[in-house]
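Appendix B. One record, verbatim.
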Amino acid sequence: MNDDGTHIGGITGFFNSLCFAIRQITPTRCVMIFDGKGGSQRRRQLFEDYKANRRGLRVRLNRAYDFEDADEEHKNAMRQLLRISDYLETLPITVLIHDNVEADDVIAYLATEVFDEKVVIMSTDGDFVQLVNERISVWNPPRKKLYTPTLVKDDYEFTPNNYVYLRILSGDKSDNIPGVRGIGIKTVQKHLPIITGDDDISFDVFKDFLKNNVDNPIIKKLFDNIDIIERNYQLMKLGEININGTTKSHIREQISSPVSSTNTNKFKQLFLVDKLYSAIPNLNSWLSLNFLKLNEFSKKTGE
């Protein structure tokens, strides 16, 4: 809380995480992507219970404090989220949000089709591991690990491309996507050597392998549930990005537009109103430490 007793933990927690990543990765530019309104609609047409476990979810931004009821807590969370949006407008960060498109798809599109230099995706979502290659890596904040192809193989024992098959078979609880019952990493490693090697396997080759090895009871079980596997592939595969041409054009236009430098005065105005002194005791030093390199890039885009 600030000096007035207003909850600010969501705002300060957001910036602590963001700025830690910026200092660790030292990116040239930073792009922040949010889900658009109706973003989950396409996947819900494939599976109506997609993310059903998140509907009405109450996110606790201030775990140390209690609220009178869930509605009060939810309103507080939304207030802080909107306030974060105000702060982001004052920083050298490109913010993208497009209706009917999930953030995952926009991130994948940017990483694989728009940017042609080094890209670091910051997310805890395991689906992004499938995009890792010599140019694209994934920074996982809780684990404080930067996933490269070598680290993916060391941690998961799959290549990035083949790791998606494990997720397709076992499902994703966070998105409420069920897998094939009784199938986990140990079962996959024992009975599906085709995806545990160093060669990347296409989905068609993977399905042919299942079809041609039904004498194995485990593989027969998988083949008998091929409808679930094909559905999950469509839900979880990010390399095949389903974004319409108009939206792709808008995304490219935003990325190619000049990036604004830090608006120090406006940031300070928000900072003073929210009384973030205890969280950021030396604001000028904090802004310089975390956003100097991003400001350098923003100046180049305006030249």
